[in-house]
Here is the input.
Amino acid sequence: MKKSFSLSLLLFFSLMGYCQSPNLTGEWVGVMSVDVNRTQQNVFVNFSLQIKQSGQAIWGIYTGGNKLSTDSCDCAGRLTSRVSREQGVPVIFYQDGIVHHTIPEDYCMYFNMLNLNYSVEDSLEILKGRWHMVLSNPTAIEGAAGVLVLAKVADKPSVDVDQYFPRLQALIRRFNDN
Here is the structure.
């Protein structure tokens, strides 16, 4: 009886760990490709995400360009998302404003939706998927687009992302209240 109960507890906690969403908090670095005129071109841009997560709420800063620091990159902006409670559903990040740019701000606005899947490959945490520029219809995918592949390089962001979100507590409550 005792052995059966212990085995049941072990199975229960194993299944709970499997069903929980991953914690995406950390620093993610990689490259994004740019589709030019809806054809895949060999144009690659360095890209990073500095993410924090509390429950289902995710917020962070992205940087893109040859230099990835927030004060010297081509573009840096805020991103927000809500992790789905369903297993295997991609994380969809939405741009929540530009915080820095050394190229025209309009170009930075192209990164306004990231549709990423989380996976673990050879013990390396990966976020990969597509980025899109959504113009007028938030449910349509139109305009610029490309592929994004990021690997987790640190369990904590190297940037204080909270400073970019003046209403952070309200954002966390809103994403966790469903």
Notes: The domain at 22-176 is CATH 2.40.160 (Porin). The two ends are 39 Å apart (CA to CA). The longest strand covers residues 39-54. Strands lie at 26-36, 39-54, 57-64, 75-82, 91-101, 113-121, 124-133, 142-154.
